[in-house]
Amino acid sequence: MLTTIARIGQHVGQEVRLGCWLYNKRSSGKIQFLQLRDGSGFIQGVVVKAEVAEEVWENASQLTQESSLYITGSVRADDRAPSGYELTVTGVEIIQIAQEYPISLKEHGVDFLMDHRHLWLRSPRQRAVMAVRSEVIRAMYEFFHENGFVKVDPPILTPTSAEGTTNLFHTKYFDEDAYLSQSGQLYMEAAAMALGRVYSFGPTFRAEKSKTRRHLIEFWMIEPEMAFVDHEENLRIQEAFVSHVVQSVLKNCERELKTLERDTTKLQNVTGSFPRISYDDAIKLLQEKGSEIKWGDDFGAPDETMIADHFDKPVFITHYPTEIKAFYMKPHPERPEVVLCADMIAPEGYGEIIGGSQRIDDPELLEKRFAEHELSEEAYRWYMDLRKYGTVPHSGFGLGLERTIAWICGLDHVRETIPFPRMLNRLYP
Fold it and tell me: Which family does it belong to (predicted)?
């Protein structure tokens, strides 16, 4: 019976067949211990020389790291095994004896591993990260499906920018200028006016020459937009959304988090309402700690970390100055110098994972913002139409997938959170 390692527990006491690769091997002379992987997990296969045909023993002896094979054996439960099960091998059918594998079971430098990213993905740690990534995406879709959102796909090639063109990749669209999308938000606002509550999920591109552990050139964003939702309800939805995702990972990726040696105690706190601190109070807090930051400055990574350290779960920093935020954010009705926005800062030094706001719904104010930000009214005419024909209060947010995964997994750098990272000096493989 052909099965997978992930389903091996369904076949205790039965003989099964696996398609797999050899991850590692050790031998005591009369017993060979084969560490096997098939993409769904890892399991040990035990080959006892006295109990198998000579051909089976010889085939097992030939196997090199990452050789591919079909293996047959009986499944038995074993509490000592990481997977909880072990395979008593009765047959080994070689598919290919792999050449000397570049990534040996020892320490390698990051550049070497990134050059061999296509192979590094096979390691237990990287497989665990990708499995968590998959679960995060599944949980996101689940949350939106259960809460009445409709998925809408915005374009990747755009004629304009959501937040200015300084950090966009420029290309030619036949005889017109075009850009790779840095956000689908503006298009999602249009979709929200048609469908009520919507979300998009796809790749976005930022041409920022940044080398920090939080930045990628190409990354994935989930961007909900909601008609008839104000700033306060927007924050409540974000709390529920992030809590759902984190709790789903804790429930469904216990083995992967263990592989990553992730301390999950802080993740268990991610539920219910999240603490909030206003921009004003955050500035005071930083100044009390000796920072020279002043009102009107944006927060850097060290500032966000210093603020987050005061809380045991994600924290909202609310009501940033109007001048340092995007043109589409709605001013506070009683304090027009600040906007109805919030950044969600993850604990443990992982920084901003969500940026969101209530959007401007007043057409006159939006026209004023176009002039202040020197935006082309012709290019954004369609966006203005949303305010001319049935404008309503509406809000939205964007969550960066890779930063969220880095936080949940406890990773040092976002480069491990995406299968093939694109960074300032890396376009290969």
Answer: Belongs to the class-II aminoacyl-tRNA synthetase family.
